[in-house]
Design goal:
Largest sheet: 8 strands, antiparallel, barrel
Strand order of the largest sheet: 1-2-3-5-6-7-8-9
Shape: rod-shaped
Radius of gyration: 37 Å
Structural class: mainly beta
Amino acid sequence: MKLLIATLVSSVALVGAARAADAIVYDAPAPAAPVVVENYNWTGWYIGVTGGLGAGDSEFVIDDDDDFDGSIEGSARGAFGGVQIGADWQTGNWVFGAVADIAATNYGAEISSGGGFGDNSLESSLDYLGTVRARAGYAFDRTLFYAHGGWAYGQMSQTVVLDGTTVFDDDVGKSGYAVGLGVEHAFTDRLSFQTEYSYVDLGEDEIFSDGATSLSEDTNFHMIKAGINFRF
């Protein structure tokens, strides 16, 4: 009897060992590769719409051979709205680019006098403003801080009334420069939002001259604008 029990115990042990030997052994899974997040790349073309406000002084310079030499200043302000196209190239964190824009505007100034001085007025308004500029900046991933500068041009509509008589009423082309600073943020891979400050100087140009008296206008102003760009 004891021999039979011992034989049964030995058989059970052998069967258990055999099943254990046949059990499937799974290897531990390999660690997942780390996810590499690439920084945003500013290289490429873009088009956009812009809008903003400008404020400054229009200075009218009078040169009279007989009576008076001097200048008259008037505050000027107005809104701008337009379109732009540009391209950027990024190397490391540095971004270099070029942009051209044009905007319609109602920026202008008017100076008038009456009473004992007669009916006199000087009116000047900027019909449009365009620029062709370079820009360079430093990118922190999707946010770009930059400086810009280049050529600015436009057209002024100017009217001069002296003693109730219109002595000049015409359009005058203007040319100068624009410089400033800006920041742009890409909130998607295709869309970016920018804000920009510019100082614009369109120079001094003669409005009219009758031989003895000449009148010129010096135009410069500060401008803040915002824009949305589509990048491709």
